[in-house]
Design a protein that fits this description.
By secondary structure, the protein is α/β, with parallel strands linked by helices. The chain has one domain: Spore Coat Polysaccharide Biosynthesis Protein SpsA, Chain A (Alpha-Beta Complex), CATH 3.90.550.10. It has nine helices and seven strands; from the N terminus they run βαβαβαβαβααβααβα. The two termini are 32 Å apart.
Length: 235
């Protein structure tokens, strides 16, 4: 099987009120060799009000940097960034420190070797990562993944993971409509409905709590269920 002729990777970083971690995550991405691919970092501020917006402006000469006038959600930020991607592979990196950019190599290699079309990094395939979940967070993530498996007849372990890597031609041709965290179930549903080859690999995880800036909540769980059901039947 021929390998994918990839030379550049686009790294989408949605940002909302991450003044305490933004510098660190950008430095980590910069210092991580992603299968020797040229990096294209795209930052989208989603209406931050804690000084993140002003900090991002200092990066505008070095990276593609965009600003939403108001907070719209992760899905909207990803959609904005996708329009400007030029890489052969596209990945999404949250602006906190819950995920380690070095883990992306496991996903990227699968795509470069033409083994898969899409790769997910699973926190539940790594025993140490499972310990980093609070009970309700663990229960919510597992429940949504089980619901996904029942709807689509698959065997995923971590649908809600941030770490998703795509062949660029695939994700650019998928219309993303969700504005908030329901981006995760929407993109998963559409990938599965289109029968693209998706595989998971274990990744590390350092989950934070709400006092540390975690934003996803129980209401997002209901939105995810609604999105999974909608995109299973429609679109």
């Amino acid at each position: 099987m021929k390998s994918l002729k990839a030379t550049k990777i686009s790294i989408i970083i949605p940002v909302f009120n991450e003044i305490n971690t933004l510098n660190q995550i950008i430095e980590k991405v910069e210092n991580t060799d992603l299968c020797s691919l040229e990096k294209e970092i795209i930052l989208v501020d989603d209406g931050s009000k804690d000084g993140t917006r002003e900090l991002l402006k200092t990066f505008s000469q070095k990276y593609k940097t965009f600003f939403h006038a108001k907070n719209m959600g992760k899905g909207a930020a990803v959609r904005t960034a996708l329009y400007y991607t030029t890489g052969d592979i596209i990945v999404i990196q949250d602006a906190d420190l819950e995920y380690n950019p070095e883990d992306y190599n496991k996903l990227i290699k699968l795509i470069i070797n033409n083994e898969v079309d899409v790769a997910y990094g699973s926190r539940f395939l790594a025993p140490e990562s499972r310990k980093r979940f609070r009970f309700l967070q663990y229960l919510g993530n597992k429940s949504l993944t089980i619901f996904t498996n029942l709807l689509f007849g698959v065997g995923l372990t971590d649908m809600e993971t941030c770490y998703k890597a795509f062949r660029a031609d695939i994700i650019r041709n998928i219309s993303i409509k969700s504005n908030k965290f329901d981006f995760e179930p929407e993109i998963t549903a559409k990938i599965l409905k289109l029968k693209y080859h998706l595989q998971e690999v274990p990744i590390s995880y350092n989950g934070r709590n709400y006092s540390e800036g975690k934003k996803i909540g129980w209401k997002d769980g209901f939105s995810a269920i609604k999105a999974l059901m909608w995109y299973r039947v429609f679109d």
